[in-house]
Amino acid sequence: MGCQFTESCLAVIIMSSIQIYKPTTSVYGTDIYGKHISDVTYSTGDFTEKIIEEVFEIYSSIKDLKDEEILQDPSNHLIPIFQRLDHLIALNVYDKSGEAILFDYVFNLAFDAITRFRSLYTVKLEIEHAHSILESRDPWEMLTNFNYISNYLKLSLTEFQGAGLKPGDNVVFLGSGPLPLTLIVLCHWYGLKGIGIEQDPDRAELSRKVLEKLGLSDQIEIINGDQLTLPLKTRSELIMIAAQAEPKKEIFNHLAKVLPVGTKLSYRIYEKGLRRLLDTFYLFELPEQFEEYLRVQPEPPVNNTVVFVTKDVC
Fold first, then answer.
1. Do 85 and 203 reside in the same domain of the chain?
2. Single residue among 131, 166, 195 that ends a domain in this structure
3. Are residues 43 and 166 located together in one domain of the fold?
4. How far apart are the first and last CA of the chain?
5. What is the 3-class SS of the chain, one letter each residue?
6. Among 164, 125, 175, 141, CA closest to 280
7. Does residue 216 surpass a pLDDT of 90?
């Protein structure tokens, strides 16, 4: 059998995951000098040019792909591209250096395609692992073998602490996906009750099967819907917005109108260095009804900043 999932076991998994991931957070080097991309060494003078070159090589590889080609990828030929992108965003680039790259006028051509590719390929990985859990004799052990489980363990802990949650509280996750890892961690390890909202009916059904396999169907409910599904009749102490949830402007404008005053939300963004390659939140301003009260910057292996807000006015 797999690990017995107590709080002490959770702490061990988080710490061991951090130790595993630290060496890979800057695969091509530890600062903006020296070796970075494709084992090529160059000076700071051409650093920005080399980064942009790598961005556009990735862009050229994925720009013409249809959604289904990314989601299926039967030959797994897209894995190296996905890994290159992961390595790229993990480069330890100072924010000002990142801005010089991200706000280069030619960069805008690649932005949407790269964001779309990583979002869809992440869904592909989650779908595959969801099926692996369903086929496994030890679904909990299979769950912890997911490559990015350490990210979700730390993000879930951040959200639990940042929102001041306690066992028995209810949470909602908008954009829960085919493998609702955040809800699984929060509900199984922290004793919460959760509702996931997923707009794709096939992914919603797959996640229900995973929850049943894990024995969590009584703690976590999955609803097929989108932001218009909110507000729910069930009171929730926190509504979480997935980093991949789109369109963000419509989502937050709707929530600003319909949620009661005092509602807590958290959302995940990419704001440090080249992580902003993946972020779409910069495209609009948060509605004035929301007031930010906490912002938690990422530490390895996490890429996301978590922002906490409350709705203060109608």
1. no
2. 131
3. no
4. 51
5. CCCCCCHHHHHHHHHHHHHHHHHHCCCCCCCCCEECCCCCEECHHHHHHHHHHHHHHHHHHHCCCCHHHHHHCCCCCCHHHHHHHHHHHCCCCCHHHHHHHHCCHHHHHHHHHHHHHHHHHHHHHHHHHHHHHHHCCCHHHHHHCCCCHHHHHHHHHHHHHHCCCCCCCEEEEECCCCCCHHHHHHHHHHCCEEEEEECCHHHHHHHHHHHHHHCCCCCEEEEECCHHHCCCCCCCCEEEECCCCCCHHHHHHHHHHHCCCCCEEEEEECCCHHHHHHCCHHHCCCCCCEEEEEEECCCCCCCCEEEEEEECCC
6. 175
7. yes
Cβ(208)–Cβ(183) below 8 Å: no
Q: What phi, psi does 91 have (nearest 5°)? A: -60, 135
1 part of a folded domain: no
- Nearest one of 34, 15, 173 to 92, comparing CA atoms: 34
Instruction: Pick the closest to residue 222 from 261, 184, 253 (CA basis).
Output: 184
Domain carrying residue 122:
7-131
Tens-place pLDDT, residues 264-289: 999 998 877 677 767 766 657 899 99
Query: In the listed set 102, 131, 160, which residue is the last one of a domain according to the structure?
Result: 131
Residue 106 CB: number of other CB atoms within 10 A?
9
Render pLDDT for 96-127 as a digit per residue (tens, 0 to 9).
666 666 666 566 668 788 888 999 999 999 99
For the chain, the domain total comes to 2
Q: Domain with 233 in it: what CATH number?
A: 3.40.50.150
Q: Which amino acid is at 6?
A: T
pLDDT tens-place string over residues 252-270: 999 999 999 999 999 998 8
Question: For residues 306 and 290, what is the distance between their CA atoms, to the nearest angstrom?
Answer: 15
